[in-house]
Records
---
Amino acid sequence: QVQLVESGGGLVQAGGSLRLSCAASGGTISSRTLAWFRQAPGKEREFVAAIRWSGGTTPLADSVKGRFTISRDNAKNSVYLQMNSLKPEDTAVYSCAATKPYYTSSDPRSQGGYPYWGQGTQVSVSS
């Protein structure tokens, strides 16, 4: 069973950047689709970005297109979220998630396809 641990969160001013990392242990990520979700206070958890194990396009939420980039390093068993031009509305707890090996979802934005989750890291953006 894979375990996921996020890091890299913090407090940043609007317009700044942060790079989140998610390190996996107990299993390889090379055969898994990985994703980032976020949950702001009083709101439901929402999809941010995903990167498929099989390659292809990397789905992004409309609210982060052009600002956030998801990437993976299978050799380091890690996935990353580069966040640029941060806005106060990006404030949330960011969590990474992983599918079972070789699982292909028709919709990588759906939380139901991810049985493995990290504990989350707080990102706060001040205006």
Note: The mean pLDDT is 95.
---
Amino acid sequence: QVQLVEPGGGLVQAGGPLRLSCAASGGTLGRSIMGWFRQAPGEEREFVAAISRSVSNTYYSDYSDSVKGRFTISRDNAKNTVYLQMNSLKPEDTAVYFCAARNAFPLATMTHDYDYWGQGTQVTVSS
């Protein structure tokens, strides 16, 4: 059973950066598609970013329009860890951020397409 843990949330000023990490235990992430989602109070959980497993040494990624150009998803399979680098943060990025793992292919943006979830980490962006 894969377990995902996301340390690294916190409080940051608008315009600043923050990097989230997601470490896996109980399995390897090398063949999984990894995603980040977020959920603001009173809102549905929404897709943020996803990264594929290696395909001929190439990783493919996808982003929601609201974070494209500001956020970057990456992975280190040797460390069984996926990252979300968030730059130019805005107050509307405030949410609980979740990482998720998907055993099927291709990239997916819907919560029901993911098999494993972390417990979430709070990110608060002050104006």
Note: The mean pLDDT is 94.
